[in-house]
Amino acid sequence: MPETSAPPEPILKKDMGRALISAERIAKRVEEMGREISEIYADIDTPLVLVVILKGATVFAADLLRSLSIPAELEFVSAASYGSGTAPGKLRLAHMVEGPLVGRHVLLIEDIIDSGRTVSAIEKRLRKLKPASLRLAALLDRPARREVETRIDFTGFVIPDRFVIGYGLDYAGLYRELPGIYTLT
Ligand code: IMP
Ligand code: MG
Asked: Catalytic residue at 114?
C-alpha cells in the first residue's frame, strides 16, 4: 500500500475506465477455482476450513465459498504491521481463528500475494495449530515484488506490477465495492 497524505477522492463506478479484470472474468475464474478446490478436497471427512485474511479477501472468499460443492466452515485472521520503531515487514495477528484447527484441512484465502510476507507470517502461525493440511488460494499473484518464496496452490490471475483496486482490494480503505479489478493510475 503506497504512503498517502490526503485521502484519495472517491471514484464512482460510472467513472471507472476499462477494468484490468472484469467482473465477468472474475466470476468465471472463481467458479473454476471452486470446482478445482472441491475436487481436490472431495475425500476429506471433515468440512474444509476457509481461513480468510481480513479485509481484502472477504469479497473473493464470499464468492469462492458459494462456488464450492463440499461443506466448508469460515474463519478469519487479520494481520497488522507493528508500529514504527520495529523492523519493517514485522507482522502481528490482530485477530486469530476462533475454532481449533487440529487435524483440520485448512485453506487460507488471500486477495493478492505481493511480497509474500503476510501469508508467510500467517502460515507460520497456523501451522502451530497442527492442521491436517494447509493450502493457499489467492485471487491475484503479483510475482514482480516477491521477497519471500510463496507456494500458491490455487491462483486466480497473475497480474503485472501495478497497484490494483476493486473486488475487495482497497486503496486507503476505499474502492472495495468496485465489481471488477482496476489499476490505480
Ligand atoms: P504482501 O504481504 O506484500 O504479500 O502483501 C499482501 C497484502 O498487501 C494484501 O493482503 C493486500 O492487503 C495488500 N496489497 C498488496 N498489493 C495490493 C494492491 O495492489 N492493492 C490492494 N492491496 C494490496
Ligand atoms: Mg490484505
From this structure: yes
What is the per-residue pLDDT across 12-31, written as a single tens digit (0 to 9) for each? Answer: 666 677 899 999 999 999 99
**H or E segment to which residue 154 belongs:** strand 154-158
Is 123 near ligand 1, meaning CB less than 6 Å away?
A: no
Whose CA is closest to 138, among 4, 36, 30? 30
The pLDDT tens digits of the residues spanning 85-143 come to 545 567 888 889 998 999 999 999 999 999 999 999 999 999 999 999 999 999 999 99
Distance in Å, CA 57 to ligand 2 centroid:
7
* Interatomic CA distance for residues 128 and 151, integer angstroms: 18
Cβ distance 72 to 48 under 8 Å?
yes
Catalytic pick from 15, 45, 63, 114? Answer: 114
Helix 23-40 to helix 58-66 angle (10° resolution) is 60
Please indicate whether residue 111, judged by its CB atom, sits closer than 6 Å to ligand 1: yes
> CB within 5 A of ion ligand 2: which residues?
56
Q: What angle do CA 32, 71, 38 make, to 5 degrees?
A: 25
